[in-house]
Structure formats: structure tokens, C-alpha cells
Amino acid sequence: MDQVTLLQGSTSNGAAIFQLWGIPAIFLVLGFAFGLFASFYVKRPKVIVCGGGSGGATGPDSYYSYGIRVRNIRGWIGLPRAGVKLFRWRIVGPNYVGVPVARDPAERCTAELLDEDGDRLAFLLWRRLTEPYDNVQYMTLSAGDDAEIVLFAQRNSQRPTYFPYDARNEVVKEPGNDRKFHEPRRFKVRIRDGYGQWQRLLTYEVSFRDTDGGLMLTRRHRNGRRSPYMQRMDWIPHRSQQRRRA
């Protein structure tokens, strides 16, 4: 009878240990939870800001563009390991002990430029970093892939005036005066997938360089801290954000 019993209890020192097929139930629960974690949470897309920059031609009637680079980073199952220092010199840097996990693609991502109140100013274009190097409105980021989001453009002869970047076939489309900006401002960049399951929200402060009137983009965090580029995006569940606004 004991051999066909699936769930049984045994006592050791007065404590009951429940087993399933001879395995302690607590290990089955932990294994099930770890499987869910590895299958869904670790594999979901996670997009971060990994850099940024500017570029363009130098002629007076040419344009300069400013953008940020984002990446769908790979997942990791493991534990962080601290680095090794010897007399204040770092011998081994911090790293992870575990196995990498290929995340699911972030499919048909779009990007929008918002004002400080959250009203949309423009749809932003993505720029591929591999051939063909063109501007597209939708982008799918596989695990480890990078892409650039172009935020603003300036006409060299009209600095420091700037406007949301829009171009077709590498020809910049300059908007009307109502969509041009002449002073430092704070903007938001919203990135979300094509299925409305997640989104990322960035806040950037735009200021001018004293030397040539070019733009400087500074990342502002929700806790008030500021830093240029290279910062993880804030996580905002898309559906709950809609409920809060409603």
C-alpha cells in the first residue's frame, strides 16, 4: 500500500514531512517556481539605453541629428559575484555566476516624443545599425540587438533651434514653426511594443552647448538624479498606466 501512495507524511523528531512520489513537496514547489521564473520572467524583453550620440554634415544648410541607442539585453540566471581588490587595486571585476538566457524579441517597437505633460509631439524613427541603414517606424529587437532612436535635428545655420527628427531616404523634413523649439526643455520618450504589453518611459532634459549651440541630452530619473545616457529605462506596466490615467 505504501508503494502506491502518492502523497504521504512521515515524521522525524516530531516534524511532518510531506512527500510526493518520494520527493519532499517543498522541493517540487521550489522547482515549479524556478521553472516559471526561467520560462517567463527572465525571457521577457528588457530594453535599456546603452549609449547615444550625434552626427551630420557641416555645411550651413545641412542638418545635425541627435539620438539614443537602445538594446534588448540578454537574460541571466545566476548569482552576482563581487570583484577582488588588492590594496585598492581591482584584480578581478564583478561578474555573474550562472548561465545566459536568450530573451524573447521585442517585436514591432514604436517610439514617441512626448512633452512634459505626456502629450505626444511626434512619432520617432528608428535607425538600423546594420545594412540597410535606413529609418523605419517599427523595429524588432532580438536578444542582444541594438538600434538607434533619433530624437532631434538641428539645421546648422539656425542653431540653437531644434525640432523632432523626421526623414525619408536620408532627407530631413523640417516642420513648421509651431513644432520648433528655441529654449531648453524637458521631454519624454515612450517606447512600447506592437502588442501593448509593455512600455518604457524616459525623461530627458535638453540644453545647449555654449560653444556651438548644439544639443546636450541629460537623463533625469524619477528620483531626481540626472545622468547622460547609459541608464536603464524605468519600468511602467502599460495597462496599469492606462488605468491610472483614466
Textual characterization of the structure:
By secondary structure, the chain is mainly beta. The chain has two domains: 7-40, no CATH class; 42-245, no CATH class. Helices cover 10% and strands 50% of the residues. The protein contains two helices and 22 strands. The chain has helices at residues 25-41, 238-245; strands at 7-12, 15-20, 23-24, 47-56, 63-72, 75-81, 84-86, 89-92, 95-101, 106-114, 120-127, 135-136, 139-141, 146-155, 163-164, 167-168, 171-172, 185-192, 199-208, 215-220, 226-227, 234-236. The strands form five sheets. Strands 4, 5, 10, 11, 12, 13, 14, 15, 18, 19, 20, 21 and 22 form a 13-stranded antiparallel beta sheet that branches. Strands 1-2-3 form a three-stranded antiparallel beta sheet. A hairpin with a 6-residue loop joins strand 18 and strand 19 (199-208). The longest helix has 17 residues, at 25-41.
Structure summary:
The protein is 10% helix and 50% strand. The protein is mainly β. Strands 4, 5, 10, 11, 12, 13, 14, 15, 18, 19, 20, 21 and 22 form a 13-stranded antiparallel β-sheet that branches. A three-stranded antiparallel β-sheet has the order 1-2-3. It has a two-stranded antiparallel ribbon with strand order 6-9.
Identify the notable features of this structure and list them briefly.
disordered N terminus; 13-stranded antiparallel sheet; elongated; disordered C terminus; 246 residues
Write the layout of secondary structure elements.
Layout: E1 7-12, E2 15-20, E3 23-24, H1 25-41, E4 47-56, E5 63-72, E6 75-81, E7 84-86, E8 89-92, E9 95-101, E10 106-114, E11 120-127, E12 135-136, E13 139-141, E14 146-155, E15 163-164, E16 167-168, E17 171-172, E18 185-192, E19 199-208, E20 215-220, E21 226-227, E22 234-236, H2 238-245
Antiparallel strand pairs: 1-2, 2-3, 4-5, 5-14, 6-9, 7-8, 10-11, 10-13, 10-18, 11-12, 11-14, 14-15, 16-17, 18-19, 19-20, 19-22, 20-21
